Amino acid sequence: MDTNPVLLEIFKNRFSSVAEEMGVTLHRTAFSPNIKERRDLSCAIFDRNGDMIAQAAHIPVHLGSMPQSVRAAIDNVPFNDQDMVVLNDPFKGGSHLPDITIVAPVFASDQRPSFYVATRAHHSDIGGMSSGSMPLSTSIFQEGLIIPPLKIVEAGKIDQKVMGLILNNVRTPAERHGDFAAQIMANVTGVRRMRELIERYSLESVDFYARRLMDYADAGTRKTIRDIPDGVYSFDDFMDDDGIADKNIKIHVTITINGEEASADFRGSAPQVLGSINAVFAITLSAVHYVFRSLANEDIPVNAGSFRPIKVLTDKGSVLDAQFPAAVAAGNVELSQRIVDVVLGALSRAVPERVPAASQGTMNNLTIGGYDPKNSRPFSYYETIGGGMGAGAMHDGENAIHCHMTNTLNTPVEAIEYSCPFLVTEYSVRRGSGGKGLHRGGDGITRQVELLTDADVTVLSERRKFPPYGLLGGMPGRRGRNIIVSDGEEKEMPGKFSIKLKKGDIIRIETPGGGGYG
Fold it and tell me: Is the pLDDT of residue 81 over 80?
């Protein structure tokens, strides 16, 4: 079959629109503010081998990890029509336990699925040692319920035994049930739209253009790499600590550009640590792919083809390729940001005019959980908080925005106060926190919350010790700060902490600014 360029463009948009419509279905029908308001979710479609055809413009950190989850589902569970498989195991393609993936097959004419659709959403509790399932853990067993690939829907009906097992291990079962139902319906939407596509154009055509779009993305990525001068470029940065021991954790990368291919070698980085900042390999893969995709000057489809020219090397058992049963809750959210910083830092030696200074370098994870006396039920709140974007060669950094590996919205104050027993007493731009330079780094955010009931609070954050770097003489952004006010006494807290607070206490998060440029 010859490639029709008009049909190629039509299929590029049709595939992405399927994933986008799945995302709309998911966030509009979800129960939790984290999915409904912040849109902490991703939706994608895959071919019969589990290679990604298209992903909606959702969460970059899911770029490399969702395909591995889909392949784990394919390899471990036989699919029949109208089945769906659920999993969250980070060592089987997941990211961290709150990110739950549900995979559905698309059957056409043969005995095996022709395509798959998948949703991933961050559930604000999946059990574990602390509310929100983002603890200062030392083992994955402390972080929540580990779900291997298993059927949650069989022949179109939810398996109530599997659903019951999951809901009996979480603090907010009604909310979780609603979010699971939203993911299932998003998959139903994706399956329906893919079948419509097959009915209109034929299975042969849909499959053919899916493969051609992967080749197109491959060619576009190779062009992006060719525009970078050949050479070897290295960069080091450090994580503040792992939340358990007060020690710096080295992240090293060497980027090699050779014609139209690139490699990112992280060997020589710190070994995996006791605390939860470890990342599984899929997270490292996602961060590297995100950076190279961001350098592209054209609209390259996000699919398996765009990953082909890029090789990622790690030491197994390192902080960038953690092995079971390492604690990994913060690797997805914190270490992923530092991987982006070191890869951009290395590439700044090659193409400084195309690379920004460091952005805030953290997601400022805040989880609050307890019992809501007004509604007579437990609650669990989770949010990541934006910060300053790094400045570039042509512009200042954006203020108060989610940067790099997170692409969520904020949770509106009204939604927080409606859902949870606390008040947001300040939500403002942290003026002056961006680094100075020819172009200034973006300013961070101040978010202050007053508790209306006793609660457990956990914060996982970075850039409280090492500030976001500037480039070409630009100054670093200001470091973040975490503050607790209890009985009128203000206390600055470390970057990672867990604490029991009482009614009337205040949590204040001041997020980092971006680095300056020039």
Answer: yes
> What span, in angstroms and rounded, lies between the C-alpha atoms of 319 and 321?
6
Peptide bond into 325 cis (omega under 30): yes
> Measured between alpha carbons, how far is 271 from 319 in angstroms, rounded to an integer?
5
Going by the DSSP 8-state scheme, the letter that residue 382 receives in this structure is E
Which structural domain, as residue segments, surrounds residue 96?
5-218
Among the three residues 218, 246, 269, which one is the final residue of a domain in this structure? Answer: 218
Q: Is the pLDDT of residue 464 over 90?
A: yes
How would you label 370-390 residue by residue, b for 16+ Cβ within 10 Å and e otherwise?
Answer: bebeeeeebbbbbbbbbbbbb
- In tens, the pLDDT along 332-352 reads 999 999 999 999 999 999 999
Q: What is the pLDDT of residues 245-272, one digit of tens each?
A: 999 999 999 999 999 999 999 999 999 9
Regarding pTM above 0.85, the answer is yes
Q: How many domains does the chain have?
A: 2
Q: Are 154 and 83 a contacting pair, CB within 8 Å?
A: yes
DSSP letter at 143? S
In a domain, 270, yes or no: no
Q: What's the rounded Cα separation, in Å, for the pair 362 and 509?
A: 12
Does a structural domain hold residue 285? no
Mean pLDDT of the chain: 95
Residue 103: strand, helix, or coil:
strand
